[in-house]
Amino acid sequence: MSLENALRDTLLDLCRIPSVIGNEEAICDHVEARLLRTLPREAVTRFHHSLIVQANQRPGLPRVALVGHLDTVDTVHEGEPRVEGDRIFGCGSADMKSGLAIMLEAVERLPLATLPYELTLIFYEREEGPFADNRLGPILEAFPQLHTLDLAICLEPSDNEVQLGCLGSVHATLTFRGRTAHSARPWQGENAFYKAAPVLADLAAREPRVIDLDGHVFREVITPTLMSGGRGRNVVPDELTINVNFRFAPGRTPQDAVDELRELIAGRCDVTPTDLSPSGRPHANNPLVKQLGRSGVVAVKTKQAWTDVARFDAVGVPGVNFGPGNSAEAHQKNESTSLRLMVEGYAMFERFLTTAPE
To answer: Please, which pLDDT band fits residue 1 given cuts at 50, 70 and 90?
Structure first.
């Protein structure tokens, strides 16, 4: 079968298996069975509903991992997974089952025994939720041999761009407290909404902070994303909660971000951190990262978001984001991705993995 048809069929098969976060068992079973058609049983290790795959044994050569999450967000789709022209429609088609399809085809098509790399694949669960629930963290704890990888490539949708590093992310709840009263006599209460107004104005006026690392730019931003409050139409609200998301550049810790947020708030409300994810350095000068950048990729940029390259960075493994999925389609209704980008992306991976490092 041609590469184009094989990638198309593999992605359609993956999209036909629902795998919304927390429901990855069926797709893990499918991927495991597919891998065992090519690899020996001892090469594939099951960890809950995740897989750690030793595709070949090449002692002494650089160790590269291809990394992809099995889960998707819960999006609305009209009709079954399908092909329309160059587009493949299906939940997770861009984020990131197109990347999983490349991983599976690579195991079956590449000359594993003669690659100039020792190749590992990690298929993992629960990426699309809170940092603490993501299964990649426990995988890296349970398999210390992964800490000696020379490069981890996370196949997040990036339109075949190599995207370096990632922003850290802190979510925090801001709680403003007042006192209830009848809305006809508001002077008898204290409106929590009004207390929030100056803080929101400060956040709106805050310009993105530009950070340059190794010639690559990250932008730090603080964004209110959720708001909840009020007891009734005729009651002065005594509490308002706002979720804010602070995206911070590599080189800073989540606690640094929490401290800065508290300094900005200056005691005007309670600040409760709820989800803390570290940042990931860009590793722009790493020789393998440079070699990947010479493999015909569309561009080399920074990642203005959070990904699991941060987890690899935390254990001393350089990581990059590089996948064929259309990033603008991630988490969209009627999500789709380009088959052309998948074919071109596979060629880039093949070129990188079959070329000896300089």
So the answer is: confident
Could you tell me whether strands 336-338 and 87-89 are parallel, antiparallel, or unpaired per DSSP bridges?
antiparallel
Q: So what's the pLDDT on residue 78?
A: 86
DSSP state of 308: T
Catalytic-role residue among 127, 159, 161, 329: 127
Closest CA to 191 of 178, 174, 175, 176: 178
Concerning whether 127 is annotated as a catalytic residue, the answer is yes
Q: Give the CATH fold of the 3-166+280-353 domain.
A: Aminopeptidase (3.40.630)
- At the top level of CATH, the class of 168-277 is alpha beta
Q: Considering only residues 323 and 79, tell me which one the structure prediction assigns the higher pLDDT.
A: 323
Report d(CA 124, CA 67) in Å as an integer: 8
Q: Nearest to residue 161, comparing CAs of 330, 318, 344, 337?
A: 344
**b/e burial code for range 36-62 (CB count within 10 A of at least 16 → b):** eeebeeebbeebebbbbbbbbebeebb
Q: Which of 13, 71, 95, 238 is catalytic?
A: 71
Question: Is 281:216 a contact under the CB 8 Å cutoff?
Answer: no
Position of tokens 């002494």? 60
